[in-house]
């Protein structure tokens, strides 16, 4: 059997340019030609260097027997997936995605003349910050927009954070990939057909 040279094994996905979120898990239509439909709800503005998608290391279980130094046999327990990213905005749509439509209320006109300029008023939203599980799909696109990674069934939880004086208020998302045993992660390349 012939071996494959390393130059033929190169499929690098780096220089990430966008994170798309679809509020419903992407499904793969079965048939002679599998098909998926991607209909993102948001292109989230993600802070540089905060996007992490890590498949946890498996735990190796070693089985020993008396009179033998090495393993008799072994097995493994799958590791836990970690997904994390930070979105530096307090936009109403992002807050609704993070905390739920019912937890974000538009506030009426608020006057605060005791400490601001007379005649000025304020408008905005009130947010209930209770923890809410978000089940979605993430589409991570490279800079050339010719390769993408799809995490199909992601559970996320959000919280608001502000770390330092010069940093904006952000929504940080943390979660995991929930495996259903089928196409949990998809690595796709654009194919241009001649014709």
Helices, strands, pairings?
Elements: E1 16-22, E2 28-29, E3 35-36, E4 42-44, E5 52-55, E6 59-63, E7 73-77, E8 81-87, H1 92-99, E9 104-111, E10 121-127, E11 134-142, E12 147-161, E13 170-177, E14 185-189
Question: Top keywords for this entry?
Answer:
195 residues, eight-stranded antiparallel β-sheet, mainly beta, two-stranded antiparallel ribbon, 1 helix
If you had to describe this structure to a student in words, what would you say it looks like?
The protein is mainly beta and 195 residues long. The chain has a domain at 17-25 and 74-195. Helix content is 4%, strand content 45%. The chain has one helix at residues 92-99; strands at residues 16-22, 28-29, 35-36, 42-44, 52-55, 59-63, 73-77, 81-87, 104-111, 121-127, 134-142, 147-161, 170-177, 185-189. A hairpin with a 4-residue loop joins strand 11 (134-142) and strand 12. The model has no long low-confidence stretch (mean pLDDT 89).
